[in-house]
Amino acid sequence: MNFEDLKLAPAIVKAVREHGYETPTAIQAEAIPMVLDGHDLLGGAQTGTGKTAAFVLPMLHKLSMGQPVKNKFGGNGIRALVLTPTRELAAQVEESVRVYGKFLELTSTVIFGGVGMNPQISKVKKGVDILVATPGRLLDLLQQGVLDLGQVQMLVLDEADRMLDMGFIHDVKKVLAVVPRDKQSLLFSATFSDEIRDLAATLLKNPQSVQVTPRNTTVQRITQVIHPVGRGKKKALLAHIIQEQNWSQVLVFTRTKFGANNVAEFLTKNGIHAMALHGNKSQTARTEALGGFKSGDIRALVATDIAARGIDIDDLPHVVNYDIPNVSEDYVHRIGRTGRAGADGAAVNLVCMD
Ligand code: AMP
Q: Which domain holds residue 245?
């Protein structure tokens, strides 16, 4: 199977090829034809599987074949809406829309909390074809009456389980109440609790479903190591491993924001350029940390789970669980930052009495 077989517009295939993808991933091969056929979709997949392109590519295709519509402000109506749990994921999805849609005329924007509202208001009033948003800020704008979702033809809930974990269910439901009933809906989730099934049952009409290999299997590509260590020696051990093994880059997970700051400070003092990424940081600081890490300027990014969710860094070779997560699923999510799209990765766990 190659991208041409999926019957996507040539402009989309060209962008995908330029981006360096040769063959569709399993979820892309399965989901893209279903979405192009107009089916609602229930997707069992986490980040790392290529799920973003699995919905973005057919979305771009369908919108590029359709006609622009007007919103009630006379601007360009939003025809596709993607909801994601975090700002970082929203930004990444919209980035993918831009990358894969670079040869199309479609417009997109992203809105999330923690940054000024006015630029977002003027963008959504003027209108875009594709809007990627976190539920909280979207609802804010809706309640202010500056946003018209009456033209939505395609709705995607990305990482729906995370959205519920983060307490967004009410916001999501309020958004669902104002989008047209007649639309195509896609729901992606890594796990399927009763709550997710309920949400899927209300949203999706005769959905087709795709389930890609559970992460556990993919994780076989990731070497997992445990170092038993006293609590007081963790920081020194971490610095030692990074230097001894000459790691170019590492993503370190801590349980708390305080811990993230503390570890980042220690590493920096010991000659390893590090930055902390967590919810107490301003959006500017978060963007800066992520940008510095992606460009390679920052050697160690020290993050809490929520901040790191959905971060997409190509070829990240090392992940360290400085604190072991409380929930097993978080462990899988964390180490899923490495060993992406076929690359090998290593996960190191510092285990102390805690
Ligand atoms: P996602 O699951 O959407 O977060 O994507 C995980 C990673 O796989 C991202 O770094 C994508 O750029 C990459 N990716 C997505 N589709 C493909 C593909 N067909 N071939 C190679 N890499 C891909």
A: 222-351
